[in-house]
Structure formats: structure tokens, C-alpha cells
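In keeping with the milestone schedule agreed at the kick-off meeting, the structural modelling team has produced records for the first pair of proteins. Each record is given below as a sequence line and a C-alpha cell line. The laboratory manager (R.T.) confirmed that both were archived under the project's standard naming scheme.
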Amino acid sequence: MIPGLSALQRFAIGALAASLVMVLAWAFRLDHLRGSHLSELDAARRQLETSGASIATLQATLDEQNAQAMRRAIAFANAREQDAAAVAAADERAKAAEDRLATLRAFAANPSGNPECRAPDALLRALEGL
């Protein structure tokens, strides 16, 4: 030790040295904790970047699927209109066929209105079910 120092001075120097050691130990501990927190923060940032990219990918996929659904809906509406037109045309053809059949039935049922032409019995039986 240093000669000429009183016991109180030696005690104060020892206490200061011990305090300095404790402060340095605490500083190293804080630096270690800070480094640990910074690495956790970096990991969280990377996770957020990955999540953000995943969300962007999901959003792009969802947008594409919505666009496909809209195209299918438009195609369905167009097909429905075409089907309605086809049904209307088929109804018109069916009406015309019914009119022709009614005319044939009238001729077949009333041979006196057409004395020159007598319908065969097989035709008359075939027309009965129509």
C-alpha cells in the first residue's frame, strides 16, 4: 500500500477501487444486455420483413384470384345470355313445330276438307300421341 496514509484513507481508496470494479462489472453486463437486445431487435426486424413479403405475396395472389373470378363471372354472364338466346330460339322452333303439327292434325282429323288426299291410318295413329 501507499505509506503515510491513514486507515480511513486506505479504507476510502479500497472502497473506491471496489466501487470501480463493481461499476465496470455492471457496465460490461449492460453492454452484454444491450448486444443481446440489439440482436433480438434485428431478428424481429428480419421477421417483420419476411412477414411483410409474405403479406405482399398473399395480397398479389389474392388480387390475381379475384381477377380470375371476375373473368369467370363475366364469362358466366355471357354464357348465360347466350343460353337464354338459345332457349328463346328453341322455344320459337318448338312453337313453329307445334303449329305445323296442329295443321297436320287438322288435315288428318278432317279428311272431308281435303277430299283428294286421305291420310293413312298409321299416320292418324302416330299423330294421336303428339
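The second protein of the pair:
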Amino acid sequence: MTHLPPEIAFLVDWLNWVNHGAPDGYPYRRGTGLCDNMRVFVRSEYACERLKRLLHYDFYDTIFPFGHNDYNTRAVRRTMHQCPRRYSWAYKVVEDFGCSHLVEPGCGDQIEPDLRYEYRLT
């Protein structure tokens, strides 16, 4: 995936991690949001800023784009990877970039099936 922009390559990798059971700490942490997990994937603040720009474009909020309460609750419970809005947004960005074919099917129990792709941006 070296030909992809780093933020897209990260989202593909993160989605595949979720689809394969999201083993905590390998390589990402369940209690950490997308931006902090991206710092594990690519050690570049510039790349993290590009991810934040995507979030700002869709939500106008780069700190808690999926909700402040949701973030805090999921951080404590270590269930960030199970947030249907987070997963659907990441998938939509990858899909819009034309790379959804790189997202591997997974075990399917990390995201509620009826919510998996329900969240669509307008």
C-alpha cells in the first residue's frame, strides 16, 4: 500500500485490523481513537494532520468527531473499534478513494451488522 496516501493506507489497515478481531495492542489499541492509532502506523505529524483534515471536512470537529461522550465511554471500555460511526466513516473514506477492495472481510462480530455501513455523510 505504499502508493496510497498515508491516511488512506492507515484507514485500510485499521479496517482490516477491526475485521480480524482487533487484537489489542497489535498493532493498534482498542481504547485509542483514529488519530492516536495513526501515530503508530506512520510516525509523521504531517500525515496525522491530513487525517484530521478529512475529519474536519466531514464533521468540522477533529477532536471528538464521533461525539465527546462516545469517545470517553469507548476509551474507558476499550471499544473504539466497535463504534459504528467511526467504522462507517473510515470505510466511506476508503470507498470514496476507490480502495474498498483492499478491505478484507472479517469475522463480522466487531460492528453491529445492521449499523456497519448505515452511517453515511451528506
